[in-house]
């Protein structure tokens, strides 16, 4: 299993960042490798830039901890095990820190997922304005 981690310091308060992350069905708005997304509070479907579709269960959506976890459970990619975790930490003074971690098997997906997550995390400040 591969473990990936990306992070970014944001000049936005944690509640503002969390509002973006917790809107799980709208992940395509800030994650460039996802061309469209739809769903509900507990399940979403994402379409990747290459046209592949993933169905993801929302495992955790904790407003107190500002933690969202999801797991790819179906779709076009032969993923054996997957858990994505996004944590938003309040640093005070209108700043926050976002950490995006992923565990994935098979390891052959690690490079592509890590690149996509790095790109999304780097894009988040521009999305927030």
What would your notes on this structure say?
The protein has 129 residues and is α+β, with helices and mostly antiparallel strands. The protein has one domain (2-128): 2-Layer Sandwich (Alpha-D-Glucose-1,6-Bisphosphate, Chain A, domain 4), CATH 3.30.530.20. It is 22% helix and 49% strand. It has helices at 14-22, 110-128, and strands at residues 2-10, 34-39, 43-48, 53-62, 67-75, 81-92, 95-105. It has a seven-stranded antiparallel sheet. The longest helix has 19 residues, at 110-128. It starts with a strand and ends with a helix. It holds the Pfam family Polyketide_cyc2. This is SRPBCC family protein.
Number of helices: 2
* CA gyration radius, whole angstroms: 14 Å
Q: What is the helical fraction, as a range of percent?
A: 10-25%
What is the percentage of strand-forming residues? Answer: over 45%
Structural class: alpha+beta
Distance between the termini: 35 Å
Order of helices and strands: EHEEEEEEH
The CATH topology: Alpha-D-Glucose-1,6-Bisphosphate, Chain A, domain 4
Pfam families: Polyketide_cyc2
InterPro entries: Polyketide_cyclase/dehydratase, START-like_dom_sf
Organism: Gordonia hydrophobica
Protein name: SRPBCC family protein
């Amino acid at each position: 299993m591969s473990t990936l981690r990306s992070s970014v310091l944001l000049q936005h308060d944690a509640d503002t960042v969390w509002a973006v992350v917790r809107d799980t069905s709208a992940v395509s708005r800030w994650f460039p490798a996802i061309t469209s997304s739809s769903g509900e509070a507990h399940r979403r479907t994402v379409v990747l830039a290459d046209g592949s579709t993933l169905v993801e269960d929302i495992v955790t959506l904790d407003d107190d901890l500002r933690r969202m976890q999801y797991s790819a459970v179906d779709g076009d990619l032969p993923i054996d095990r997957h858990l994505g975790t996004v944590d938003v930490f309040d640093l005070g003074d209108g700043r926050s820190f976002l950490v995006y971690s992923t565990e994935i098997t098979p390891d052959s997906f690690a490079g592509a997922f890590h690149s996509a997550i790095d790109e999304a995390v780097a894009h988040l400040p521009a999305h927030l304005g």
